[in-house]
Design goal:
The complex is a heterodimer of chains A (147) and B (504). By secondary structure, chain A is of the alpha/beta class. Chain A has six helices and five strands. Chain A has helices spanning 21-33, 47-54, 70-79, 97-106, 126-139, 141-145, and strands at residues 13-17, 37-41, 58-62, 88-92, 118-121. Chain A has a five-stranded parallel β-sheet with strand order 2-1-3-4-5, with helices on both faces. The relative contact order of chain A is 0.15. Chain B has a five-stranded antiparallel β-sheet with strand order 2-1-5-4-3. Chain B is built from 14 helices and 17 strands. Chain B is rod-shaped. Chain B starts with 7 loop residues before the first helix and ends in a 28-residue tail after the last strand. With 504 residues, chain B is of the alpha+beta class. The longest helix of chain B is centred in the middle third of the chain and has 49 residues, at 241-289. The chains are: A alpha/beta (147), B alpha+beta (504). The A-B interface holds A 19-23, 25-27, 29-30, 33, 42-43, 64-67, 69, 71-72, 93-94, 121-124, 126 and B 264-265, 267-272, 274-276, 278-280, 282-283, 286, 295, 298, 302, 305-306, 423-424, 431, 433-438.
């Protein structure tokens, strides 16, 4: 299927968290077509456990979701030793930098919460998504390399 | 039988006492203007008088005054009245009314003394002056009305703002109308003799609207009897036009802000759907490229779902934008609440939620957009039912309450459902926020808030995760909109233009 850019290593695993089933399906398909291993979640309940279990190389996270919002999940990930180092790419049609800027003010200032690795605004053009994913994954190469 | 006259000794005693006890200043002058006798009041005010002349004591002069009234009285024996400024102590003068009369009723030549009597009117005249200044210069509209509601006195501010008022009826001057206003506070004062206030809208001499709060008080009563019929009323009105303008501007700004938030939220909603459409196209195209019909089919389904989402968003948007001009009529505030209880009762029961109504009886009709309030309550009640369904508790219920206190109508929708955490609470009004994922449009509460703001009200929220939620729509009656539609609730007042009627 995809023996192009990533062939020497194992396919990077990306976990998509978005409450819109269609978007999860779409992004999964795009990523799988591009040689990633994609998994999708449509709710944040139990998401942290799932992330711990799956150990993805990157999490694509929608920040606006029912119940516990994506922001809460992001905070939980950063506070948990097991998930702290997993890069996060935020996707949303709304509330991008501003929301994180607010978080930065109150929480990131203490140094306990690092900012996410990237933000993408919906709708996301496929090339832009792939470019961002690859950029972030390359930077986090050492981590995947140890696997 | 006339009583015996008092013996001469008693008479003399009385006269002596009167002279000294009288609270006015009295002195006797000889033709040289020397003071030959004076009473205690004179001494108290002007000091020791023995051997002194009136002009030096009272005027600080060295010779008789130029236009001395006593000179004339010495000449013709007639009494005279004048007012004069006299020195009461070193350099300080005061205002007096002075009467000069021959001491003897007989010949002034035979008995050449005059009685000089003075009373201090300084206090009374300064009080009068204070009153005049107060009446004229106070930054209020002040009028005195007789029982025919005719203006018998009007102050400067009144004349400047409403034009010549004297002799006209108050309603002509204030409102350019030809008959008394409904609930006229002055008429109420004439009726019950008590003070009455009202907020009113009038028309100035230049044709501008003026909003004022007027207080009418009894000024005088027949025969001075404290319980007698009021024959004059004083009306004091404070202009609140600027305040009302500011309030209106603020409401308008709030409305505009709501529109701005709506547009921002709308962009978010559309972006999400757009992403779904792009996804559908991608899935369909890649399916076609790979000749995988199931993929094509999936793509088509995604497209269909997102087209459906757009059409429901547009429908909601239309209902959101509809009623920019709400149809306001006098309605029973309980009517929309009863409709909602009826409409949602069965639906709630079906999903195991109890819907209860606690409606305060006897609420007066209020100018409202009944359809709008209906929409608000429908949104809140259906949200509450959803919250109950999302809760793990078994016996969930939703209570819709209506009440009024201190001129403020309150609709309350409370539930003991799942409640909201801090983040959700902070965001429910900000955009097309929804906690129902694809199941909600995020427009319900926004629409509700918009309608509440159009009614000059506020929507308040209390919620705790796991405990439940309480929404309150608070509508102060004095901020409710003006009636724009023919009334449906018959209290007979619908055709009356009311206190604001003369504005047109």
């Amino acid at each position: 299927m995809s023996e192009d850019s990533m062939s020497p290593k194992r396919a990077p695993k990306v976990l998509i968290v978005d409450d819109e089933r269609d978007i999860v399906d779409y992004l999964s398909m795009v990523l799988e077509d591009e040689g990633f291993v994609a998994q999708g979640l449509t709710e944040t309940e139990g998401a942290l456990e799932r992330i711990k279990k799956e150990g993805p190389d990157l999490v694509l996270l929608d920040v606006m979701m029912p119940g516990h919002t994506g922001l809460s999940l992001y905070r939980a990930m950063r506070e948990d030793e097991a998930t702290r180092a997993i890069p996060v790419l935020i996707i949303s049609g709304y509330a991008r930098q501003e929301d994180f800027a607010k978080m930065e003010l109150s929480e990131l200032e203490t140094g306990s919460l690092p900012p996410p690795e990237g933000y993408l605004e919906k709708p996301i053009a496929v090339p832009v998504l792939l470019a961002n994913l690859r950029r972030i994954l390359e930077r986090h190469e050492p981590r995947t390399g140890t696997a | 039988m006339s009583p015996e006259p008092a013996p001469p000794e008693v008479r003399k005693l009385l006269d002596d006492h009167l002279f000294d006890l009288a609270p006015i200043m009295m002195a006797v002058l000889d033709p040289e203007f020397q003071i030959v006798e004076a009473n205690a009041a004179f001494r108290n005010v002007f000091g020791p008088w023995e051997g002194r002349h009136c002009y030096e004591m009272l005027k600080g002069e060295t010779a008789p005054c130029e236009r001395c009234q006593a000179t004339w009285t010495f000449a013709d024996g007639k009494s005279r009245l004048c007012d004069d400024r006299l020195t009461v102590s070193k350099g300080v003068t005061s205002h007096f009314v002075v009467r000069v009369a021959p001491l003897s009723t007989e010949d002034i030549i035979a008995n050449p003394y005059v009685l000089w009597v003075a009373s201090n009117v300084n206090e009374a005249s300064s009080l009068q002056r204070e009153n005049d200044i107060l009446f004229e210069r106070v930054p209020c509209y002040v009028t005195v009305l007789d029982r025919d509601l005719e203006v018998v006195r009007a102050n400067r501010r009144m004349r400047e703002t409403f034009g010549k008022s004297w002799g006209k009826k108050c309603y002509e001057v204030y409102k350019r109308r030809d008959r008394p206003c409904r609930k006229c506070p002055a008429l109420l004062v004439f009726e019950d003799g008590k003070e009455h206030s009202a907020e009113q809208t009038g028309v100035t001499a230049t044709g501008e609207e003026a909003h004022y709060i007027v207080t009418a008080s009894p000024l005088t009563r027949e025969h001075g009897d404290p319980n007698g019929k009021v024959n004059f009323v004083i009306e004091i009105a404070t202009d609140v036009t600027n305040l009302r303008t500011l309030e209106r501007d603020k409401l308008e700004a709030e409305r505009l802000a709501a529109v701005g938030q709506t547009v921002a939220g709308l962009a978010h909603g559309i972006k999400n759907i757009l992403m779904g459409v792009e996804g559908g196209i991608y899935v369909m195209e890649s399916g076609m490229r790979k000749s995988q019909m199931d993929r094509v089919d999936r793509g088509v389904q995604m497209l269909k779902r997102n087209v459906e989402k757009i059409s429901s968003l547009v429908k909601n948007l239309l209902s959101f934008s509809k009623g920019r001009q709400p149809s306001v009529a006098l309605v029973d505030p309980n009517a929309p609440a009863r409709d909602i209880l009826e409409l949602y009762g069965a639906m709630a029961r079906k999903v195991g939620v109890a819907l209860e109504g606690v409606l305060q009886e006897g609420l007066a009709p209020a100018p409202m957009d009944a359809q709008g309030i209906h929409t608000c309550l429908a949104n809140l009640v259906s949200n509450a039912v959803d919250a109950c369904q999302a809760s793990e508790k078994g016996d969930c219920k939703v209570v819709l309450t209506t009440s009024e206190a201190a001129g403020t109508l309150v609709y309350e929708v409370s539930d003991n459902g799942c409640g909201m955490d801090y983040e959700v609470k902070n965001r429910i009004f900000t955009t097309f926020f929804t906690t129902k994922g694809a199941g909600g449009t995020g427009l319900g509460l926004l629409t509700t808030r918009k309608i509440v703001q159009e009614h000059g009200g506020k929507i308040l929220l209390e919620s705790d995760p796991g405990q439940g939620t309480r929404f309150r729509i608070v509508l102060p009656r004095d901020r409710l909109p003006v009636v724009t539609a023919v009334t449906s609730a018959g209290d007979g007042s619908g055709t009356e233009e009311g206190n604001h009627g003369a504005a047109q």
